[in-house]
């Protein structure tokens, strides 16, 4: 069996993605960060604060899509001149939790809550 042109490179990239994650996702993340960098300073600071929060509580899978949606929201708000308080409301935590609720897949906290409930159900004989 002979390897075609580019075959070793393809295998290398496959191995690299196993170790580091999707290269396409990394490219999308860099594009997202570039978009955020272009926002006016106040909007950029707000997005970076939300991003920090989302890094702790957001999904592991699908995180780039979620952040791209956040960038869309703040780019549009900046373009329209919508004040940041009108975007996030009086309680930024309430806003980010509502935003995060749209991305339930991949949330580690959701998986841990399910695991906890399942374990307690098993030991108490209340399995569904």
Describe the structure.
By secondary structure, this protein is an all-alpha fold. It has a single domain, classed as c-terminal domain of poly(a) binding protein. It contains seven helices and no strands. α2 runs parallel beside α4 and α3 packs antiparallel against α4. The radius of gyration is 20 Å and the shape is flat. The N and C termini lie far apart (52 Å).
Helix-and-strand structural type:
mainly alpha
Shape: flat
Largest sheet: none
Beta strand %: under 5%
CATH superfamily membership: c-terminal domain of poly(a) binding protein
Separate helix tally: 7
Helix % is over 70%
Strand count? 0
CATH topology: c-terminal domain of poly(a) binding protein
Query: What is the CATH architecture assignment?
Result: Orthogonal Bundle
Overall tally of structural domains: 1
How far apart are the termini? 52 Å
Which stretches are low in confidence, meaning pLDDT under 50 for 5 or more residues running? none
The topology string of helices and strands comes to HHHHHHH
Level-1 CATH class name: Mainly Alpha
Q: Report Rg.
A: 20 Å
Organism: Nonomuraea guangzhouensis
Pfam families: DUF1048
Protein name: DUF1048 domain-containing protein
